Amino acid sequence: MSDNNETSVLGGILKRAYSSVFYENWPIWLGGILIGIMSVITFAWARPWGVVGGLRNWADWFFNYIGIYSQAPFSPIISTGSILTLGLFWGAFGSALMSKQFAIRSAPGLELIKGIVGGTLLGIGAAMAGGCNVGGFYIAISALSFAGLAMMVGLIAGAYLGLRYLYWEMEHIPSKPPKPPKQGSGGKSLVGIEPYIGAIVFLGAIVAAWFYARNAYARVGGLLLCGIVFGVIIQRTRFCFVRCFRDPFMTGEGDMVRAVTYSIAISILGFAALKWTGLRPEAVYVTKTFWFGSLVGGIIFGFGMLLTGGCGSGSVWRAGEGHIKLMVAVLFFALSNSLFKALIKSSEGFQALIGHKFFIPDYISYTWTVIILLAVFVVYSLVATWNEETDKFTVEM
Question: Containing domain of residue 282, as a range?
Fold first, then answer.
């Protein structure tokens, strides 16, 4: 075989590999497994994965800058929460470019209003529950906190109520079709060069991580890379916590429920091992929100994520794809969370109402805690699979 033929064959192999990674969506179950693994790695490296903490840090910094807050927060460039959220956006943005899926997507006026209202509800709910769908639900359960299960119940209820509202809206409020997405500027498409821009974005991430390590912030640089990996995985698999709580009621599909089950099972086992062996403190991410804060906050958050079409992580990665509605939602999510968190902290009575810590192994063994939590999600997954066949819980318009 000639050198030219060999080069052609190699080029074809590389093109197919690139297409498999960036032009074809990854299986949703794979996304669940990879997110579970990454959540354990992130916890082992420094701290649990989170989203709303970073958004709140940005809003706290803004409110301090304009003089509303007197106490300055950690700088967004070194705050671990900020870096994880920035990494999620960074990874989703770069992945969208590499897959030629980035575009500035406008939205009708009503949808923008829903982004404002929904984002505000996300912020309030997350403040009450001690975290969004990631910190208040996914990571809280992984951390063996009963508050995570309380928020799960709230998310299911909130998603049901939100779906009911959306069906009412479709029947009573006429909507205009969205405008087609715009790519580039001046009518010129950037699709052809998007992968090259994406490569520069990821190269910039490596440079940023190197810069952190060089300046004695290797922990922060590592979290930036972890956040970027989360962004890539979620964008390529279209992993969406909203679907986990919405789809059983709307379409009857259970694939996202099963994906979340795979993911959280891995995360529970990893977190339990790290805590049980003493490698990480037992109290980490066991929030003082059981039961009122987690349950009621979950309901508010669940309703809000149906309005916005995205949860905490979902809003950020979709903003990275260019969705204006989700950009608006993220902005109001951050601002409302900061303000409502400050309101909670200002009142001892409000803090007492929100709840207290409930670390399950304090009452039963680690073994039984893990077994019970895994059983809860196995049952949830089985019910969702049964619902696919029967449409028992599907809500009709």
Answer: 27-390
3-state secondary structure at position 157: helix
Assess if residue 251 is contained within a domain: yes
Residue 95 lies in a domain: yes
pTM: 0.93
Report if residue 123 sits inside a domain: yes
Q: In which region does residue 222 sit, left (phi positive, over 0), alpha (psi from -120 to 50) or beta (all else)?
A: alpha
Note whether 359 and 129 are within 8 A (CB): no
Residue 47 belongs to some domain of the structure = yes
Query: What DSSP element (H or E) covers 297?
Result: helix 292-308
Name, in order, each residue with C-beta under 8 angstroms of 140's C-beta and a sequence gap of 6 or more. 130, 131, 147, 148, 151, 285, 286, 287, 294
Q: What is the pLDDT of residues 248-275, one digit of tens each?
A: 999 999 999 999 999 999 999 999 999 9
Confidence of residue 126 (pLDDT cuts 50, 70, 90): very high
d(CA 117, CA 330): 11
As for how many domains the chain has, the answer is 1
**Local structure of residue 137 (DSSP, 8 states):** I
Residue tagged 């958050």 (tokens): 301
